[in-house]
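One-letter codes give the sequence; each number marks local geometry. A record appears below:


***
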Amino acid sequence: MHAGEEEVTLSFYTTGANSVTLYKNNTKVWPPPGGSNDLFFKDTPAITSVYRLEAGNRETEDRIHLLEEGLLVSRELTVQVAQAGWNRQPLHQGYPTLLLAANSFKSGESERLYGIFVKPETDTTPEAAGLYSSETGFAPWRKEAGSFPKSMSHSPGVAYDNKLWLIGGSSVHPTERSKKVWCYERDKHLNTMKWVQQSDGGFTPRMGHSCVVFDKKIWVLGGRSEEIEPHNDVWCYDAESRKWSEKPNAPWEGRCMFAAAATPKTEGFQPRIWVYGGTEDADEIVPKKDLWSTEDGESWKEEKNFTILPDPGMPSGATLYFDKRLHLAGTFKNGEKDEDEKIVRGTISAHVFSLCADLSLWEDNPVSWGWEQYGGNPFLMQSIIFNRFLFFWSLYQNIETVPKLNIFIPS
């Protein structure tokens, strides 16, 4: 809910009680002075609120005693309110590895936010990962049916052809390489949803690759296999032919764990795939900061006309997303470098850059509080726009502190 903008109505029905009281955040709000015969209460909460209804037969005795004796019954309801700015969402189902917006697989429901979540305390068991969905991106999150393929818990994926796709190996774990492809789809015979393994992708087993939907196809870009050098290859999948095809290698240096996004036609641009940053080695990260785009998946152009000025430094975590314009969000480090071009001393700053194509420049929106508070410092940041909200999360190679799902709500 938006703070102070949406109304909730709490209705209630009781039997066998001569006293009914409703509290909001421990403050009595019903019945109003003078009493009321209407058994409902309307409110537009400005913060996340706990509504507590208490019904009983004796109002004068000690409340704790009445509860212990069963003479007073208490029920609570928490209404989550999203305020403008940053919100950190508690997630009982684990930490997010992938979020996708897609039409609901249940009739009568609108688009939902689907997510793969992993419970760190059980990450070695088959129940560690699961698919959940939310109508708003906030609780409640509903666990979806189907036995999740464990080996795909950290794989990149897309929503495509009325299915959810998980493709290849891990986004972050260097040794978890794969070319497997799984889909969450409807069983036409049983009319139920389930995970189904598809034919393997035509590419070599890899990790750290990126996947986007562009030109009505799935595109798989880069990544790292057992070879010494990372990949700069480009693959696409067509739902009509059900085949993978390889495109010419991209001119950008091979990389893994990089940001990628597909954008529709906008002022100044035809539809494009964009690639930014990344690293050649997932074990020893040396960040890249080049930006490339393609209109057809074959001819790539380095976007040197859109150099960020002043230079914020090397990205230590970055993500691309589209919301009317292309945006680059991340943490950047600027300072002294050693002989291996690694920054040994410097300053860290957080930014959201918005591309102004007509002016050939990036509009800088500094994030003064820094991404550290929101789990955005790890190198591989992810983002998605849903329900007008911007969701950020990070992927870790080693889980020490559980990553959070962080939501920015425009004012």
Q: What stands out?
A: The CA atoms of residues 174 and 282 lie 6 Å apart. The chain is about 0% helix and 45% strand.
